[in-house]
Amino acid sequence: MKLLDVPGVGSKLSERLITRYGDEEAALEALLRGDVAGLIEMRGMSERQATALVQRARGASYGVSPAAFLATEEAARIYSSLMELLVEEAHTDRARQRLLTLFPSSSREMIEENRRLAEEAVATAKRLQNTGIADHLSRLRPLRRGAGPRVRSRSVATDSATTFRALKDRGIDRTVDLHLVESSRDLRDLAQGYDLVTLLGRSIDSLSLPEVEEAVGEEEWYLVPERVLHHYQENETTIDALLKAAEILEVAEVARFEGLEGLSLSMAKLAEEGDPEVQRLERLMAEVEGRAEEAVAWANRELKTRMESCSVTLAGDDLLLALGKGGDLRDVFRSRMGETFAAVLRSARERASSGLHLKGSEGARLEELISPEVRYPLEVDRAALAVFVQEMRKRAEARRLKARREVAKELSGMWELVVALHERLLDFDFIYSLGSFALSRGLAMPAFVEEPCIGFLEGRSLFLKDPEPVSYSVGHTGLAGGGETTAILSGVNSGGKTALLELVAQVAVLAHMGLPVPARSCRLSLFESLYHFGKSRGTLGAGAFEATIRKFSALAGEGRKLVLADELEAMTEPGASARIIASLLGELSRGGSVAIFVSHLAEEVARFAETAVRIDGIEARGLDEEYRLIVDRSPRYRHLAKSTPELILERLARTAEGGESEFYGRLLSKFR
Ligand SMILES: Nc1ncnc2c1ncn2[C@@H]1O[C@H](COP(=O)(O)OP(=O)(O)OP(=O)(O)O)[C@@H](O)[C@H]1O
């Protein structure tokens, strides 16, 4: 098959598909695989168009058209409503898009292939019951690949124009400042603006610059580990869901995966709370200023109190010394009050550092923030404080960088694994959703037989909230009824005739999609198409009658059809309608088709019929305690069900009062 063999693909679209997928073979493979997600990446291709394109390609590969089976609007509506229910089961967009590419057809091979898929899907969903996998699948999102926030405290420098260009081409400058330096001076100037400069190249001496590190690699994880980590951080929820879902699949022995453990361990490191030393430094940075201020304030209060309560007696010598050349009254005070001052200073410094878990020279550095000079009031040395905080920030940053590099190095080789895992689990969601749809609704795989027929036991309409099971069969299903392939369904108003027709349509559509159907068991033949005619409202005018009859002309064509019609009699006067229905049924029966017509004109139709037409009926058995009709939803075969007006009259007679009730009673007596 070629791309041009797909209906709707002209040379222009074919070219675009080849550009998108690389070559014709890959493009065709993508269409047949149902790659809607990949197709909508093409400009101007909507999801609906992509879905239809996949359907046409699939259809073409089996020699069918996706629109052929659903021959009427009503049939297409039933299919759409079924698809709505089906896609409700999908946890991901990918699964939803793939599910939407399924369609009913008369191709035995296509149905067979889908049946194999559906059977595998149901078996898989069964094995995964109560494992909670759905929660993890629901957390899967498309993988993102943003550059992440800029690193502002560091920069990368190189002395080589070639390296500079290569790094730019790799987009390193999107995350961190990138510089080309030509001399040690350049480098020194640059270093002043950052906590750390990573230098690539050996021509410039950087030994004397503590803010410069000589790079030992050019890999992304080394130069900008934040970028690698960002890929994993921004996809953390999805990766976590992937790991959990994959683990469940392994435990349930549904699938095996390589490299899960390594990825899981590295992801755990990514999520780990920071390094305790970095946390200590951060706490120190946050608290040091306040502590120093508080200690100085305390010392000033203390000095004031102590000074106020003491007096100093000066000897004449002291006065001469202080007043003499180069003399200073401070020296006098230092000699008299030195011990008091020193004691207060010591206590203040202890107050500043207590509980800060200082290490190495940090204690001494902190002490230096409160000058030992004898003076009042004491003050914090702001310049020393700034230098101290700056140093701590650099130490913390260096440790953080080291830790980031370690995790980034591990993770940098795992991205392909993440992408592959993501693809597999999105594909898996399609299978799992399909299986869950069948399992949660108790669907069963139908059996295809040769004779024209359709029938099921305990069918439950998927469109009703709490459906009563219904069994019905037309043609030689071997389940019940007789061999007639055409039936007229009569019965009480609101008995469930329309609902039953819809159920037959649901069964036919799902079976021809290769999917299980809502019944305990089901047998049917392969049909070329489904004609479903809904109930029309009121008698049609001449123009509308003509249009309706034209639609029926298609029924005369070749091929086995399943025809479901709801109260066609409304198309024209009852007498004419009965004749038309009878002759339609004759045409269909002779053509080897199967038909179920809901009609209140069953007796008249049977009178005009030239072929064997069975009349079945849905009947009311009586009234319940609240005077509601008790209906047997499964039709009785070969039984003309009355509309049971006497039950309605009985209800009226019992619920009305006085004269009105008597009136209904008199009418009712005519039936007894
Ligand atoms: N199998 C079923 N289980 C539960 N409820 C049902 C079932 N079949 C039909 N009903 C309910 O009965 C009501 C009437 O059904 P429906 O419209 O199919 O009847 P009808 O025989 O076509 O009526 P009418 O002759 O008036 O067109 C609907 O509201 C539907 O929900």
TrEMBL record:
Record has Secreted as a keyword: no
Gene3D superfamilies linked: P-loop containing nucleotide triphosphate hydrolases
Q: Which GO terms describe its molecular function?
A: ATP binding; ATP-dependent DNA damage sensor activity; hydrolase activity; mismatched DNA binding
Q: Does the keyword Nucleotide-binding apply?
A: yes
Kindly state which keywords UniProt assigns to this record, in alphabetical order.
Answer: ATP-binding, DNA-binding, Hydrolase, Nucleotide-binding
* Positions that bind ATP: G491, V492, N493, S494, G495, G496, K497, T498
- Where does the DNA mismatch repair proteins mutS family domain lie? 484-672
Q: Which GO terms describe its biological process?
A: mismatch repair
| Similarity comment | Belongs to the DNA mismatch repair MutS family. Archaeal Muts2 subfamily.
The name on file for this protein is: DNA-binding protein MutS2
* Name of the gene encoding the protein in the UniProt record: mutS2
